[in-house]
Structure formats: C-alpha cells, structure tokens
From TrEMBL:
UniProt keyword annotations, A-Z: Transferase
Any one GO CC term of the record: cytosol
Protein known as: Uncharacterized protein
Keyword rRNA-binding: no
Pfam families: AASDHPPT_N, ACPS
GO biological process: lysine biosynthetic process via aminoadipic acid
Lineage: Bacteria, Bacillati, Bacillota, Clostridia, Lachnospirales
Coiled-coil intervals: none
Top-level taxon: Bacteria
Length: 218
C-alpha cells in the first residue's frame, strides 16, 4: 500500500502553465473551468501526482497512462487495471493512495472549527459519542477523524458518500481495522484498504513533480 502526500503548493506561475500539456484533455478542461487559481493548481497537481506515482510503481510511462471511471464514477487506470488508486485534496494538500491488489479509499480534510450541528444527520450514535466524549480541545480533531474515515471507507467501497451515513458506524469491529488515520500539521488524513500490508507514506514536494515532468520535455 503506497500513500503519497503533497502538503504544500505555491501560487500559480508560468511553470504550471507549461505542465498543462501533461494532463488529459478532460482534466485540462476541468482545470480551466475553475475560477480560482488555487483550485486550478490543486486539480493540476492532483493529476500530475497520480501519473508520477503510478508510473513509479508500474514502470509504465507517465505519459502513456489512460484514465477513466467505473460505473460509480470512481477513477480507474485503464492502462493497468490491477493498480487501484484514489485521490483527495483540500486547501493546500493533495493525498493519493495506490494499491497493487485491492481497492483503496482516501480522504484528507483541513482541521477548522467543526460543524458539529451536522453530526445527528451524518454520524452514527457511537461516532457522535466518540466525538462528544473527547476533551473540548480534541473534539474538532475527532470530528474530522470520523468524517475522513467515513469518506475513505465509502470511496473504497465504490459508493461515495451516501444519504444514510448515519447508519454507517466506522467504529464497528468489522470496519475499523480497515482504516488508518494520521495527522499532518492541521490536516487529518484517512485511508481504507482491505490489505493488511503496512502503509508506506511518502511526502513529495511540488519541485519534485515539476522536475519529473519538465525533464520529459527536454
């Protein structure tokens, strides 16, 4: 199980414009549809991160990878279907999980003042209790731990977030062992995978991605 984190992104500049040629036409249209440069940046580097990491693991050229979606709109690598990956990003952070054998789900959220009022709608009673039993200073962290785990699990299952989330208890004995959560500064990351293999977390800098792709055009 491979986990790649891109934790810091600089403002959009000329170099980013040069990197647009390395993404698919569909991704390019999505990038260009965003009004904010920060959103364009996240979309661009999420696509580049996946290409670079899948290429590193598979040995295939990053430029030859073709992507699509399954019936539940979950992204897949059509070039090598045995590789499973999942992406998540939030303000200033991109997370990518890759498995060579099992479907994977992943999520990252920036820790802010948690919207506790939505717990009754989306959290199982045991999850609500888990959050409320924490010291006040830890309740934001626990809220986002539960939220990212629920999203990672549903993404791994291929269903995405569903209306009856309050019936899903990710603290249950049959689900919780599939999940792993960690913090990086003010971000909470969660991953769900059926494999018992240890997670290998690699942190990548923006400069590494730029160098990787721009070298291809030399």
């Amino acid at each position: 199980m491979y986990i790649y984190c891109l934790p810091e992104l600089l403002p959009w500049d000329e170099t980013d414009s040069k990197l647009l040629k390395f993404v698919s036409l569909q991704r390019l249209k999505r990038i260009q549809s965003y009004y904010l440069e920060s959103d364009r940046k996240l979309s661009l580097y999420a696509a580049l991160l996946v290409r670079q990491c899948l290429s590193t693991i598979s040995g295939l050229s990053a430029l030859n990878l073709v992507f699509g979606c399954d019936k539940n709109h979950k992204p897949t690598c059509l070039t090598k279907t045995s590789l499973h990956f999942n992406l998540s990003h939030t303000q200033g952070f991109i997370l990518c999980g890759i498995s060579t054998h099992h479907p994977v789900g992943i999520d990252v959220e920036r820790i802010t003042s948690a919207p506790f009022s939505i717990m009754r709608r989306f959290f199982h009673p045991m999850e609500i209790q888990y959050v409320e039993d924490a010291p006040f200073s830890e309740q934001d962290n626990r809220f986002y731990e539960i939220w990212t785990k629920k999203e990672a699990y549903t993404k791994q299952q291929g269903t995405g977030l569903v209306p009856n989330l309050s019936e899903l208890n990710i603290l249950s004995s049959d689900i919780h062992p599939l999940l792993h959560t960690w913090k990086y500064n003010n971000y909470v990351c969660s991953i769900c995978n059926n494999s018992n293999s240890p997670n290998k977390i690699t942190y990548i800098q923006e400069s590494e991605i730029r160098k990787y792709f721009l070298h291809m055009s030399l």
